[in-house]
Backbone:
């Protein structure tokens, strides 16, 4: 079962920073980060729509230029909001990368993902379709909090490689449906080893985890 570091193991490191991602890459099979576009068009790594929670600034990410974002302080680290390119440089090619697209226009991120083990993920079928049109060689994953058959059908119809359901909606039946449709399954967000052990019993292929110590022995 693959261990995927959620935002660079957000429970133990400042999320979505280069330092967190670099440290997580030494412990995980893959690292997951979030991408938005800034006012000058570059893909930047930050989860929220605004910078308020994780920086000393305020306002929407989309209203800040790249220079303005890089001048902010993320969670007291002294790091600014990093570009996707900078974060990718912190992850060795031997470690997978999962890039969650958070908003319209972020499909341009696939232009930077021509590397082994890269996956682009989103809750938006439209964004995943745009990624397929832009670069069909990059694997795609549909994020969902719906445990019914519709999510499997949508992911399969889109030609996704993976389904990424929430822990709350995932069970053995959903995993069986996904596998029957040719989809790998990564469950999110896992915070305790007991939850990872349950996911392993369901047959999931990966856990997207906030901590590095959740993978069953």
Residues:
């Amino acid at each position: 079962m693959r261990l995927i570091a959620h935002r660079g193991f957000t429970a133990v490191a400042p999320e979505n920073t280069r330092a967190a991602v670099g440290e997580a890459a030494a412990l995980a099979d893959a690292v997951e980060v979030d991408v938005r576009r800034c006012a000058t068009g570059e893909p930047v790594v930050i989860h929220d729509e605004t910078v308020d929670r994780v920086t000393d600034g305020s306002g929407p990410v989309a209203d800040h230029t790249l220079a303005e974002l890089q001048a902010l302080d993320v969670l007291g680290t002294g790091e600014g909001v990093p570009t996707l390119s900078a974060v990718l440089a912190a992850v060795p090619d031997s470690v997978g990368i999962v890039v969650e697209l958070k908003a319209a226009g972020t499909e341009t991120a696939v232009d930077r993902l021509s590397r082994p083990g890269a996956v682009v993920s989103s809750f938006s079928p439209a964004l995943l379709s745009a990624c397929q049109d832009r670069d069909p060689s990059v694997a795609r994953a549909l994020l969902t909090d719906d445990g019914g058959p519709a999510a499997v059908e949508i992911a399969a119809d889109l030609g996704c490689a993976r389904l990424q359901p929430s822990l709350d909606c995932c069970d053995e039946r959903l995993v069986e449906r996904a596998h029957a449709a040719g989809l790998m399954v990564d469950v999110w967000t896992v915070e305790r080893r007991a939850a990872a052990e349950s996911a392993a019993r369901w047959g999931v292929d990966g856990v997207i985890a906030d901590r590095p110590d959740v993978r069953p022995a």
The chain has a mean pLDDT of 97. The beta strands are 2-6, 30-37, 43-45, 96-101, 118-122, 139-144, 162-165, 184-190, 206-209.
